[in-house]
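User: Reviewer 2 asked us to show a designed sequence for the structure in our supplementary figure. I'm pasting the structure tokens here. Could you produce the per-position amino acids so we can include them in the response letter?
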């Protein structure tokens, strides 16, 4: 029997394009936009947060050198910033016009963008 992890698809409260704030760690209180979401590990990449320097060896196509690269952050260390009240807020899921939407618990405003 294989002990490989099977992917689990979770409902995350943070999506690509959301503005979030970091709650703990060396980048505490930094705000940024979510660039990428990893469902299997419950991590996201946030712009200008958790930046590290990587030393790259020169190749034929790349000169080499030191580049700055963002690393993923656990979702438990982030909180969504409500676009209306512009403060960190918890999110609840609510059915609105036969669709499941995210709602700010502070101001009861819909967080999802209407298409």
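Assistant: Here is a per-position design you can include in the supplement:
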């Amino acid at each position: 029997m294989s002990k490989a992890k099977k992917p689990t698809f979770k409902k995350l409260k943070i999506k690509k394009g959301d503005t979030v704030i970091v709650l703990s760690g060396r980048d505490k209180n930094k705000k940024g936009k979510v660039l990428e979401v990893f469902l299997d590990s419950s991590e996201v990449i946030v712009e200008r947060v958790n930046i590290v320097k990587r030393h790259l060896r020169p190749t034929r196509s790349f000169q080499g050198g030191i580049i700055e690269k963002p690393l993923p952050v656990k979702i438990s260390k982030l909180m969504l910033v409500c676009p209306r009240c512009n403060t960190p807020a918890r999110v609840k899921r609510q059915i609105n016009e036969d669709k499941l939407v995210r709602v700010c618990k502070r101001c009861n405003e819909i967080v999802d963008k209407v298409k």
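For the response letter, you might also mention the following. The mean pLDDT is 91. The chain is about 0% helix and 40% strand.
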